[in-house]
Amino acid sequence: MENNQAFGWLMKSAVSALLPTANTNINAIEGCNDISVLVDGVARDFETLLSAVSSSAAAAGGGGGVNTANVPNDKSASSSSEVPSTETNNNSTKDNLTARLDRIKTLLYEERSASSAAVTNNNGSISLNWTPGVATEVFKCFTTNNNNDATTTNGGSNAIQQDLLPKLLQNLPSLPFEARKSISAIFNYLLVCGLDGVDAIQFASVSTAFAAYVLQRAALIIGTFVHCHDCKSQGKSEGGSGGGGGDNGVDITLLCGSMLRSSLRHASIYQWVLEDANCEQLVYPFLDEYVHDPNFDVSSDALETVRVMFTGLAAPAGGGGGGGSSGGGGGVDGYNDDTDTAYEEYKQQME
């Protein structure tokens, strides 16, 4: 069983017990607190993983999704000693990518827990001079190109880190199961951290700036979320990238539904989705197709998204699909609609 499956952690633990040195890099990642280093590692791992997927597709002779998906599992397809080595390297890359994303998510949650506890201990008193350093750095690293001159010469990592988050969202089928969940959790957190909680005001600048970033790329990001509800086409694309289709398609659909509803909590994105020019591509598919999907999880998740689109009401805390505790429902919060200006001002503050 591959490490990107639900019980991959069990296999990884067994291997670590037999070969302690195999998990040295994972331990280093789990002890890292530098967001820029972690995100740079995510960019490198992601680039390596995409190259491996492309090479696998090319080795299969450009065949259909089914043939490509079956190549890694067909041990008799090649007698070359390079195949196990390639699979080992790919699994190592997936493990590192998953560990880095999980570490970023953990640092975000730890900062929020400490902030909430501080407000509670101070009888609700909020320090307006405090800024969420981790959330700010995560937003900055995932949405801008932070490679310095020393790292821009190492091939394509400079290009891949530019707008890294949208690239990750577009390639969810190619990523390990746990990595998908972490990406969804990070995306949801950045959107709603300034909307909920006793200390929400301290995170409002990050949440507003990230919503503006999403709005600027809404055709790509929101369009990806909507398209991922089409499990039939998703199964084909996953097969072509080695994702496997089947239940993987459902898990991606639920994660994208959660991220879509988190996006709809911002008035600017909500209004953009429901504009006449966008309804046909972004709203009608839910009514005509997705709510009628034979898979109960997919249809019920689509129905929840339709409810949010039509009412603009947030779901109860903890509702909605996967993607972390911040991936609750949707709805519209009264944020400043001038999000482009907010985004530009926030970028100037970070520079």
Describe this structure in words.
Helix content is 66%, strand content 0%. The model is unreliable at 1-5, 63-83, 147-158, 235-246, 316-331 and 334-343 (pLDDT under 50). The chain starts with 7 loop residues before the first helix and ends with a helix. Helix 6 packs parallel to helix 10 (200-216), helix 10 crosses helix 11 (218-227) and helix 10 (200-216) crosses helix 18. It is mostly helical.
Give me a quick take on this structure.
With 351 residues, the chain is mainly alpha-helical.
Global geometry: globular
The stretches of 5 or more residues where confidence is low (pLDDT under 50) are: 1-5, 63-83, 147-158, 235-246, 316-331, 334-343
Percent helix, as a range, is 55-70%
| H/I helix tally | 18
Terminus-to-terminus distance: 45 Å
Calculate Rg over CA atoms.
21 Å
Helices and strands, in N-to-C order? Answer: HHHHHHHHHHHHHHHHHH
Structural class: mainly alpha
Main β sheet profile? none
Arithmetic mean of pLDDT = 75
The count of DSSP E runs of length 2 or more, i.e. the number of strands, is 0
The percent range for strand residues is under 5%
